[in-house]
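Exam revision sheet. Question 4 asks you to relate a sequence to its structure. Input first:
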Amino acid sequence: MDIKKLPKTEFAVAVAQIAGERNIDPQDILDSIELGLVSAYKRDQKEHGVIIPDEEIFEVELTPETGSFTIFKVVEDKRTDVTPPGFGRIAAQTAKQVIDQKIREAEKDKIISEYERKIGSLIAGVVLRIDPYRLTVGVGKTEAIYPRDEQIKNENLELGSKKLFLIKSIVEDETGRKDIVLSRRDSKFIEELFAREVPEVGNKSVTIDKIARESGQRTKVAVSSSQPGIDPVGSCIGQKGTRIQAVLGELPSEEKVDVIAYSKNINQFIANALSPADNVKVLTIKDDYAQVEVPEEQLALAIGSGGENVRLAGILCGLEIKVQASK
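Answer key, structure tokens:
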């Protein structure tokens, strides 16, 4: 229904004003009021001892000029006026509730649409509620969910904790409810932290080519630059390690971050990826497997605690890497 075509009565003007301010179709408001009136009628009848079966059909004629209405019971093709006497007060309350609900929905839809444009970026949030499977986080003027599978391993946030989060996605359940989903586990979270703390990453003069991460434990970040005179690794570390420390400050203290130089030369890239081990020699590369050797004293560094270093290096390079000591 066109807002301009609604008759200029108090009821119609109120509907038109709300519709215009909140960007809601006026007919949508009227349809919702009609549904609300049927629900209110059934509740009213129940309070008077009359239980109405779900299969019974009712229709509402709502007059936009005045807001007056009639409730009809429909049996086959016959309609019977069943509007209870004195139902106007309940109807007015119902209309107000419906309009209030529509306003809340419109405001949330507007907020959700704003966050849809921010997917993949960081946002500051405060932990409001803690449940077994997710946390509720206050972000801006709304709330978001932080599911368990998006949380950093072994990072236990407390009520009131203030942290940065990645806006990962918007999800919709079967009822049509939409939620903003946050993450701190996703590798994109690391990428955005570097973009925030390292100007060269933010302006794309330094590129993050690949990330391999075991959240809460260790992360390897491969970086490069096509601009002469820029040291991509040095840019990410910063003078006296200030930039990498700023990144680490947003992560659990147990999580370490290795920044390495990306190389299109796979042999060089494997050697870089196995940092902090030195003197890495690639023996063979076949299909998705690589065999390398390092000096005996570098073997523990190359493999890492529980095989973590070589495993992440393999993820970074897209290979299964086997390390042996030099003979």
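Marking note for examiners. The chain has four domains: 3-116, 125-183, 186-262, 268-327.
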